Amino acid sequence: MTIDPLVLLQAYAIGVFPMSDDREAEDVYWIEPKRRAIMPLDGFHISHSLAKTIRRDRFRVTANRDFAGIVRLCAEAADDRPSTWINHPIERAYRHLHEIGFAHSVEVWEDEELVGGLYGVALGRAFFGESMVSRRTDASKVALAWLTARMRFGGFTLLDCQFMTEHLRSLGAIEISQRDYLQSLAGALDGVELGAGRGVLAAGSGVWAERAFSPLAGDALTAGTSPLSPSFTVSGPVSGQDIVQLLTQTS
Known about the structure:
Helix content is 34%, strand content 20%. It is built from 9 helices and 9 strands. It has helices at residues 5-13, 48-55, 67-75, 88-99, 139-154, 166-170, 178-188, 207-213, 240-248, and strands spanning 17-19, 29-31, 35-38, 60-63, 103-110, 113-123, 126-134, 158-162, 174-177.
């Protein structure tokens, strides 16, 4: 089965996303939860211990350096997850979205080993988190902290986490109704034209994703488009200290 990239993006635009029953399953079905988990971009709960881990740069964090590796790691069976919903057609679909600029990853490294991270789809000012993984203590928390900070930096307004878990709740995620979610989604996708044909696929995620994921995002920052104070600029890759400052800064 092949998932058309335009159909996939159009599904996100109406609050729907694909899943499968098992890694080796052939079928893909579409999900529209009645309750939606989101991460408020000004509400990430960063504990003292997590802040310490991030400040000390215990892990090296990158973006879009190994998208395929993150998807494979998320799809692997683990002791607490004997199977996953990421079947092979879904994996291929997101790798294609990454190749054309719509899917993005945050990778967490210990030395040269990929030990955690996440991936998802950026569209307008919305980021749809698809899956995250941890092979070391706090690796997925570090990835989500970096993602949230990058979303704030880039001017995003919606970070979709799909389904609530205790792990996400402990980090500040909240649950909202599908109606409220669709209202937030409409605002985040204002100006995104997915009905204009396949030409839209050539445009990529847009300026917000460029600001969020570019290693020189501070150079692209335009006054008035970010919740950061005018004095907060980044001339190179963001450090752990910058991430903690961003997450603890009130809007």
